[in-house]
Amino acid sequence: MSTVAGAAGAARDKSEAVDALVSTPPEPKRTPSGINERARKAKARLSNPWASAIALIIALLWTIPTFGLLVTSVRPELDIRRSGWWTVFGDAFAGEGVFSMRNYEAALFGSSTNLISFFLNSFVITLPAVVIPITLALLAAYGFAWIDFKGRDILFVAVFALQIVPIQITLIPLLSLFVAADVNGSFWTIWLSHSAFALPLAIFLLHNFMKDIPASLVEAARVDGAGHVKIFFQVMMPLLTPAIAAFGIFQFLWVWNDLLVALVMGGPDTFPLTVRVAEMAGSRGGDWHVLSAGAFISMVIPLIVFLGLQRYFVRGLLAGSVKG
Amino acid sequence: MDWFIYAGDDPGHKLMIMLIAMALFVLVMGLILFIVDRPANAPKWLVTAGFVGPALLMLTVGLLYPGLDTIRKSLFNRNGTEFLGLDNYVRAFTEPQFLLVLGTTALWVLVAPAAATFLGLVYAVVVDKSRFEKFAKALVFLPMAISMVGASIIWKFVYEYKPNTGAVEQTGLLNQVLVWLGGEPIQFLLQRPLNNFLLMVVLIWIQTGFAMTLLSASIRAIPDDIVEAARLDGLSGLGMFWRITIPSIRPALVVVLTTIAMTTLKSFDIVRTMTAGRYGTSIVANEFYEQSFRQNNAGFGAALAVLLFVIVIPIIIYNVRQMRLAEEVR
What we know:
The structure holds two protein chains of two kinds. Chain A is mostly helical. Chain A has helices at 2-13, 15-22, 32-47, 49-73, 77-82, 88-93, 102-109, 115-146, 152-161, 168-180, 187-211, 215-223, 228-257, 260-265, 273-283, 288-308, 310-323. The two termini of chain A are 36 Å apart. Chain B has two domains: 2-85, no CATH class; 88-329, MetI-like (MetI-like fold), CATH 1.10.3720.10. Helices cover 74% and strands 0% of the residues of chain B. Chain B has helices at 2-5, 11-37, 44-73, 87-94, 96-127, 133-141, 148-158, 173-180, 194-220, 224-232, 237-248, 250-266, 269-274, 284-294, 298-329. The longest helix of chain B has 32 residues, at 96-127. Chains A and B meet through helix 3, helix 4, helix 5, helix 8 and helix 10 of A and helix 2, helix 3, helix 5, helix 6 and helix 7 of B.
């Protein structure tokens, strides 16, 4: 026991080494002259007016649309109908009261939109749909990486290959299954569907991370008499936190932002924000005061999570695509 | 029993069901691991089954069986009572309405990934090592966190149209720019084929951040001695970009292009939210939903889903080939 813990502790010291493995591609060694060279190049590039202009144009194109809708979401309904959001700055400068949170109030609690209850649905859908596949994938990834069983490689390739199956191809039969089991339209169907769809990528990614853990650590624990379950919890888990965070963000964004699965599997009582907001865009396309507020209500949580854990997200992105 | 399945619209009940589901899951998994761990030397098949079994079961029921069943269903009529052979596929490739959908899909797959990759590459190069690099990258990266539904609404507002009569002011930015330039406002989402490209803009807007991140990382990984040698040979600026940067990051370019192409093929949210497939904007992923769940033609919908799968395969083969080549070079 103590040795296992010790091994894990030693592993934590090595976690930087694992970190380096995790964050592909490795930074190349740079000679001092290389650094100077790059600095010179960077200066040259900055003073290049074309490069700056291109960077500025792209940056503006990527921000203005969001900014416009954000401004709109805090304008009174009548103003939104009457004039463009860009006029707001002149009015604000003239000292007129142009901002209010009324739209958010209407979108969240108004009887016709009632987004607060869809917000709850999004939450209820997301939590299990993130935790369940990660847990299953962690166990399976450990099995594929560290248990030597017959047919392992073929099975792993099969799981890997399932990644290319488009979700669309599974929806109709899955829905029939749920109807036959008399659970259609409930949260259970959405949880189960998301969990199954997430597994191939999750197993593949986590398997790659687990393979990177030094075999000597596992050996040491085994010599100490630890079984697979103990190794899994006491050696692997502490080292895999970054990997779990990376995939966790993927899955969170995927589930929270998903439209198709929830639309097909869910019902009026289980639809998440995305379904309701997309529906509003169709049925109340002109009501920009609730639509703009609704869009931002659906975006606020993923944006917070994303900004907070961006580091892990980038790592996962690089590991997944470069290795994959 | 119903109490555990349906919560109605009672918030407390919903949360209860969620907690019960989580507790149930933890309990089952705990039990499995307990059984596997209990005997002093458990047989290996039991341990293996304990770790790999739950995931494999889930994959079989949730992916493998439905996938195969869809292929079978695609050979039948709308409710699966009559065997049609390949009629559904023939229909997809002959009726003008669906030929248009296939053409539009091809347009998406050809244009959107190339545009997103190009913009991501250009942006990665121009902001690389600049003073605002982090901030500049975050701006382009942020749309990745937004749902395609949210992004569609953001852009739909940009394309908003008001008829140009008397004192009416435009509220959509793009039409306002047109008016400022002395033009007439346009109903952008109704103009074919322009509307298809305007819908693609949304996907490009989302995916450019992904391309930028990956390409920026692989540009940094180019060894300095190569750059140095090229400089001694007199290369700089665009010459350096074409002769050194592009060939060095070729494998990453292929990965980015194919990944975005696969996302493009499957993305249905944008078309659904912006136009619901009207005005000649439908793509296969949207038509699949329309046929399966609106027209209740499960057989034809299944054929479209299989088609999606078939179109993905060449992209993946190309991707794997390129990876192999890259590894051989190394």
